[in-house]
Each structure stands twice: as structure tokens, then as C-alpha cells.
Amino acid sequence: MSSATAPAIPVVFALSHRELVRFFRQRNRVIGAFLQPIIFWLLFSEGLRSSNLGYVHFYPGTLAMILLFTAIFATISIIEDRNEGFLQGVLVAPVPRMAMVLGKVLGGSAIAMIQAILFMILGWITCPDVAPTPAQALLATLLMAVMSIALTSLGFLIAWRMNSSQAYHAIMSVFLFPMWLLSGAFFPQGEEGLLGWIVAINPLTYGVAGLNHYLVTLSKTTIPLWRCWLVSVLFAVVMLGLCWRVAGSRAKGDFVS
């Protein structure tokens, strides 16, 4: 007989806190996480200036890149936890599975949000065309929180069935990197044909467009703001629901017989 008797909130807090502690104890990871988006922003923006696309165009895309890759990388800890036996201990404990899912997802989302907020402030200070009002900055932060939860949940979903971080990196290369490239973060939106169709069904497109609305003074995006919120929230809810469902099933290596 088994029952979930432990309260959920302490479990969520403990697992989220563990993700943050693990991140800040890895000094090289912290340095790389904060420097990489700045380097990418500088290099890509300089490269795109010849196409009349520069720092402002690439700014919301860099925020999306931070959220996507930080959130996804954070969920590699699921594979590490399984290989080290920690995940098996959590799974046999009398705690709700949704608490375990939320603990991992919110921990990864918090790491992504810390980096994204710091980069948002950097752009606000250094780029004249990035001039949101305080209300717009707050709404952009809320939208980034929704995006980070959706993307961390996506990473959770992919990592749950894997027992190799190398395989996880391979999935990132063939699936997640194109997801970012085809979100309007790199190429301008509004393309027709197959590329336009792919951009339209990519949920990250709407997050990038929403950040464009809030943060860029002369935003050129044509996607309505309400649609940006609707798609982003639905993306987060669906991904969280799928995480809950997949965490309720057994994966190879979850239990030691």
C-alpha cells in the first residue's frame, strides 16, 4: 500500500532550492552562463548590422536564447539524479509526483529567470532603443517567467526518458537549436512558404514577439500581444501537464529491483 502523505510545498521548495544551490556551486557554469549570451549578442548583432538588423533586433532573441538553453540545460540534472540514485529516492518517497515535477521545473526556471533579468537590465542600460516603462518591464518579466516554465517543462519531458546526457545534447542540437533559430529570434518574422509555416507553429515565436512588444521602442512584430500571451500560457500548461503524466509512469532505471 502506498499513499502520498507528505505536504507538497516543502518538497517543491526543497527540490527548487537544490537546483539553485547546485548551479551556484559550479563556478565555471555560472561564469559561462552569464558571459555566453553577452558574447552572442555582441557577435551576432555586429554580424547582422549589414542586413539592417543589429543589437535591438537580436535583443529579445537573446533573452529567448537565455531562457531556452538555461532551462533546458538545468533539466540535465534529471539524468544525473537518476544515474546517481537520487531520483529513485524521491520516487519511492511518499510525496506527490506533481510536487517533484514542480520542484524540478521551478528550480530550473528560477536559474533561467535570474540570468534573463540581469540581461534585460543590461540591455535597458546600454541600448537606447530598449526603453520599456516600468509596467512594460514588469509584464515582460511575467512573460519570461511563463516562457521559462514552459521551456523547463519541455526539457523535463525530454530528459525523463533518457539515461545519457550525450543523447540529451544530441536532441538539443537537432530539435531545440532550430526551435530558437525559427522563432523570430534570429531571422525576421513574416516569411512565407514552409519556413513561415514552421515559424507560425513554433510556440517560442510568440514569446519572442511578446518581448519585442514590451521591450523594443519601435517594435516591428505583427503578432498581437494577446496571442503572444495565449500561446505562451497554453504552451506552459500543456508542457506541465505532460510532465505530470510522464512522471507518473515508470522509466528504465527509476526503481532498483
UniProtKB/TrEMBL annotation:
InterPro entries: ABC2_TM, ABC2_TM_bact-type, ABC_2_transport, T7SS_ABC-Transporter
Gene Ontology MF annotations: ABC-type transporter activity
Annotated GO CC locations: ATP-binding cassette (ABC) transporter complex
Subcellular compartments: Cell membrane; Membrane
Residue intervals of the ABC transmembrane type-2 domain: 24-250
Keywords: Cell membrane, Membrane, Transmembrane, Transmembrane helix, Transport
Major localisation: membrane
Pfam entry (one): ABC2_membrane
Membrane topology value: Multi-pass membrane protein
Positions of transmembrane segments: 28-44, 56-79, 100-125, 137-160, 167-188, 194-216, 228-247
Domain of life: Bacteria
PANTHER family from the UniProt entry: TRANSPORT PERMEASE PROTEIN, TRANSPORT PERMEASE YVFS-RELATED
Family: Belongs to the ABC-2 integral membrane protein family.
Protein's name according to its UniProt entry: Transport permease protein
